[in-house]
Amino acid sequence: MNEFQPDWNFHKENEIESNLPPQKLPGAYSEDFEESFKEIQLYNHDISFEENFQQDNTPKYILIEINSIGEMQVNNVLSPNDKIVVNMKDFEQFNFERYFVDYDTIFGTRLLNFMQYDSSFFVCDERVFFEALLIKYKKSNFTSFYWSKEKIFKELGIKKDRAEKIISRFKELGIISVENKRSISSEGRPQQVNYFFLHPEKVIEILPKVFGDEEEERIFQGHRDIQKYLKPGLRKKKGK
Q1: How do residues 210-235 score in pLDDT, each as one tens digit?
Q2: Would 140 disulfide with which of 75, 92, 145, 169, CB 3.0-4.6 Å?
Q3: Where are the domains of the chain?
Q4: CA angle, residues 52, 53, 56, in degrees to nearest 5
């Protein structure tokens, strides 16, 4: 039995101002309901991108949380097993008058996140290199990836000598292993390419040093976010 009245209006009931047209929930199942409403699939953050589309190419959706000061973040309050039903008719026809804009995305650095690093542990270019490693690791489906010194300079602006020092330190920390291989460039010249192997368990181990005091909630959020980011890599490494 449907617990809601057909004319029930959620926004009015909860004194919420909304530009959305009032929705009427059907008192019983109907063909109109079946045609208008569609079940959508959630993106699973606990597996890799390729695994999300292993069964089919059906689009996946992510829930974005927006707070009162305009900050946006992915909210994992829903699990991939939860079901979401959307009124596609209104979704496709409704013209939104307001758009939330994440102004940080026009810059190469999210300053507030960048400030969470402990400067006594990672200086500026080490932070950039660290984040680039995490991104490339995920982009390569949590496997090894090649990255030449020329590419590092082109992509990050870190010169060869400085890159070698950062790589050496990261190897000492145990978060990466590097294998040097010779290859031929597109211009036919011999070159040496670094194959990077990221060790996610070591990255998680040093997070308290990377971001500082775990007692501070704002900083500890950085720990949790990276742990979630690396979770598929940990699972893949353990063969689960």
Answers
A1: 987 655 555 556 677 888 888 888 88
A2: 145
A3: 111-238
A4: 135
